Amino acid sequence: MANDTKERILAAALEMFSQYGYAGTNIRELSASLGLVKSGVYKHYESKEAIWNALLDQMIAYYGEHFGSAERLPPVPDSPEELVQMTMQMVNFTVHDERIIMTRKVLTLEQYRDARARELATKHFLTGLIDMFTHVFTGMMDKGLLRRDDPVMLAFAYTAPISALIHLCDREPAKTGEAMRQVEAFSRHFIKTYGEDIR
Fold first, then answer.
1. What is the pLDDT of residues 64-118, one digit of tens each?
2. Could you give the CA distance from residue 56 to residue 193 in angstroms, rounded to a whole number?
3. CB 41 within 8 A of CB 9
4. What angle in degrees, to the nearest 10, is found between the helix axes of 80-96 and 128-142?
5. What domains appear along the chain, each with residue ranges and CATH number?
6. pLDDT tens readout for residues 11-46
7. In whole numbers, what is the pLDDT of the chain averaged over residues?
8. What residues contact residue 199 under an 8 Å CB cut-off, 6+ apart?
């Protein structure tokens, strides 16, 4: 029961932090949204900062489990078409999963206030994606599916526009369908460009 309440507190905190930011969220309103009094929240978390840190820990675990991480790298595709499919699955998940959407909003809002949020924003919006696709492209080159090039630069070139389109979906959800089509078109263009020497 206690764990259920802790999970409910974190879920409500994620929603409120994603809408109002850390500074704009207070424990009284958070408690009221759960039908609790402040002492009921403090029974599980000693402070708003403790809720924040528990929420960041939860975000890291959820993202790693469902999207991937340095410890859980995606498999190397066996064909260029598998790269397109894998990319579309990853993007579809990240633009439609409510927890991931709220997490991205929280990190975007709080990256200038909090060092952990800044580190996570850099990792999830840039360096983690580059590391993941460096692994993917190195493996695809080894399989003869992409022509030899600097895999880090290829990963940067591949992930930056896709990441920008994901952020567009957050800002303008009505453009999600269009953005998804652009991601697929870009993925196919990338393959055409870097797979052109394959015999």
1. 888 877 778 889 999 999 999 999 999 999 999 999 999 999 999 999 999 999 9
2. 38
3. yes
4. 160
5. 1-60 (1.10.10.60), 67-199 (1.10.357)
6. 999 999 999 999 999 888 999 999 888 888 888 999
7. 91
8. none
Distance CA 161, CA 147 (A): 21
Query: What is the chain's length?
Result: 199
Burial of 194 (0-12, 13-18, 19+ CB in 10 A): buried
Task: Enter the DSSP assignment of 123.
Answer: I
What global pTM score does this model have?
Answer: 0.84
Using a CB cutoff of 8 Å and minimum separation of 24, what contacts does 152-160 make? 154/194, 155/129, 155/130, 155/131, 156/130, 157/190, 158/133, 158/187, 158/190, 159/126, 159/129, 159/130, 159/133
CA-nearest of 38, 166, 33, 29 to 103 is 166
- Cα torsion angle, 176, 182, 188, 191, sign: negative
